[in-house]
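Forum: Protein Structure Q&A
Topic: Joint prediction for protein chains with partners

I've read a bunch of threads here and the consensus seems to be that you should model interacting components together rather than docking separate models afterwards. I'd like to see that in practice. Below is the full input, 580 residues plus whatever partners are listed. Could one of the regulars post the assembled result?
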Amino acid sequence: MIYAVASGKGGTGKTTTCSSLAAVWDRPVTLVDLDVEEPNLHLFLKPDLSDIEKAYIEVPEADEDKCTSCGLCRDICQFKAITVMAGTLLVFPEMCHGCGGCLAVCPEGALSPGKRELGEICRGTADGHAFVMGRLRVGEAMSPPLMRRIRKEFPELGKGGDILIDAPPGVSCPAIAAVTDADCIVLVTEPTPFGFHDFKLAWEAFKPLNKPMGAVINRADLGDTAVLEFCKANRIPVWAEIPYSREIAEAYSRGEVVSKAIAPLKETFADLRGNMRAAAEKEVANA
Amino acid sequence: MHEIVIISGKGGAGKTSITGAFAQLAENGILCDLDVDAPDLHLLLDPEHRTEEEFWSGNEAVIDQDVCTGCGQCVELCRFDAISETDGRFTINPLQCEGCKVCVTLCPAEAIEFPQKHCGDWYVSSTRFGVMVHAQLYPGEENSGRLVTLLKQKARQMAEEQGLDLVLCDGAPGIGCPVISSMAGTDLAVVVTEPTPSGLHDLKRVAELCENFRTKVAVLVNKWDINPAMTEEIEEYCRSRGYVLVGRFPHDRAVVDAMLERKVITEYDSGPLAETLEEAWSDILNLLKTIQK
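Posted by a regular:
Agreed with the consensus. Here's the joint model:
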């Protein structure tokens, strides 16, 4: 089973939830940090990142001697990554999405596959669990291609057990890419106006994917009851409520996994694990 | 005219609460919410839309089933695994489609249409702290960077027309496309961080991005008293990199209480909390004076 821990708003506790779940997971699991812009899970799980591999996207390289300035490559490119100016072929590799269109249409063989570094894929183990994370190169604008590289490994990784994904915040393309493969989505939120607003956005965004979804309400006693009422009205199960406490915030600030550091939370996250598993298995049984 | 963007790398560090307070303290500025994906500033500022426009950007491929011959070449061509076949019927998943036009161009039957996409809406609004330019990108959409660029252009243009000398922007989390777009032409990035391993890690990456753009970096440590030792470590890092420290803000539930009343912190509290932000804002304005245009 693949589980994704997501949220509309950043900082609601995705990484807290993921790291705490990892500590109570009682089956083989691969922990995957797909928040490649700002991966944080490793700061808490402290894996030995024994294997670090650079990841690339294919971008065109131009051979000016072969180019006849026909402009077909410029015409197909939707991303302004290639143009012909004053008879010279210009490639802007940073703009390229790696679709391969220019290479496919060039009649002269004047373009060949080159590469741009997207970032790194880091692998290791944490507490006996396999760990994989993407780390986007600073300056690289596009996170989905790096995420796609890691997602392609899911069928293989899934053979070894469950997969638990720490997703990026938001509801735009990277967030959707992170939850696409999941059998079950955990939406972490906090009961504040910002938390509630972004929770609604995320729920709206993920609803069309038709996957079982449940909420984790972090800092549950901090704000108001709007999130709970919304969950009730829309039949979104609340799988866990994590109380607000300075003790939890301080443990997090020291890089501790809170389900280990704060005794009562172990049960909270074990219950969450049970709720996630039941929802995912029910969905698979119905399919 | 100066432009400031408030960013953080890590989400939930307090960007929007702090931007809200600065919005009240700023005089003669245009406000701009560049977190087009999950914007929240409007929740504090209760904007009244003056104009509302659609944001159209990019295209998506759609197979015309009446023309499709089922040859399957498009599946081979698509690098984004967006096209699939079920019982001889080929369809494109709009969430996976990158809008690259490769299948459209190379389909032998010319069976693929390429309509433009309505990706969101953007607004110019009135708030109690002045004009605000903001947007809402539709869920799952790309091109957030282009929308950010559009909002910034609009905000600058309005500031110029009205003779205002400041554009104050709330940024997006992360270091990807919308954040990179928010950096272009900005005079100062105020990075809000928190004294946690994630806060420091994410600050380092987003500040490195600012350095790549030669944007000056100022840092504000939010919830500093959660971990004073980590706050020291962050501040030491900032000094070593030449980032300007514009203050420490304590962990205080008044931030949430203000939010629940749809007020900014400086409206809700006139005591020491507000003073901390007033001092930070005054430091930021002084810093701006040293930045040559």
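The CA atoms of residues 57 and 157 of chain B lie 21 Å apart.
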